[in-house]
Amino acid sequence: MKDLSRDLFSDKKFFSDNRNQELKELLQEFRKLKPTDEDFYSIENVTTTIFSKKIFRDFYEEERYKRMENQILRFIHQKLRGRKTDPENEDILVDFLDHCFKKPLTENNNQNLIITFNYDLLLEYILKKHRSTLELETYYGVKLRRYSRPTEPETRYRLEILKLHGSFNWFVAKGSSDRNITSIYQVDPEDRDYFIHENDVPVFIPMSHGKEFYLTGTLYNTLWVKASYYLEKAEEIYFIGYGFPASDINNLLFFGKHKNKIRKVVVHYKNDVDANLVRLKELLGKERVLSSDAKIFLSENLDIF
User: Fold this and answer.
1) Which stretches of the chain are DSSP H helices?
2) Tens digit of pLDDT for each residue in 138-176?
3) What is the pTM for the complete model shown?
4) Rounded CA gap, 113 and 101, in Å?
5) What is the dihedral of CA 214, 256, 98, 87, to 10 degrees?
6) How far apart, in Å, are the Cα atoms of 162 and each of 143, 178, 179, 219, 230?
7) Are 268 and 294 in contact (CB under 8 A)?
């Protein structure tokens, strides 16, 4: 988030493109205020400004904000697409996935499930790179169409991942304006047909308070209903790298109903007196909340999954 915020206010190349002028003008308005608080210059504040602006919009302002919506989403897409991890971190994630999704199932041990609010392609990248080791096929919980056939055969094991905020490799079919499952296509990052969507906006919900706009159609509603069902049936729930930000009070209520199933909430904070860490411990219990780097936690606690 910090990298995205920094890049948003400093990327000259992106804003040299005439297609991004409206967003450039909005950022200039932010700069004119000259606040002393550095957190003011955050991508969350910018996206919230764009997606929550509903009043005083005439025809021209309506068009201006629609263009800004596409511009900020394209910016996020371009910045995060193709980001890689280092070999040490890859090994930790590979061990975690291999352990969780290939161990024998027993009567009291059903398949693990990953739910994520992030919209990067980290897991897909790892699965493709380590296909011979993991033998895992990604399933998104909904049957999405493909623009072309998979380049690799189906594998032995299946990794089910519910991307509740969408993904960088989901796109609305050209000519369609809704977010229904029948209109969404999955395009593998290495797919030869990816160029079709090179300048499109992927289907994902940005980091902002104004998210209601996206919750129309069948895609997100299906994902969230399925997540709710799985949580009801779950025996144990672990949150890794998600700290229930104050802006997502709905998520706190959504997951709070299953508080007795939550075993750990693992988020890294600079110190033990961080206000967000204190808040989390008060809400979920001191014994459940752990301030730790995710890769350290996974590497040291693999046996609990």
Assistant:
1) 2-8, 12-15, 21-33, 43-51, 59-80, 87-102, 122-129, 131-134, 219-233, 249-256, 275-284, 294-300
2) 889 888 888 665 555 566 788 889 999 999 889 888 888
3) 0.81
4) 9
5) 70
6) 12, 20, 16, 11, 10
7) yes
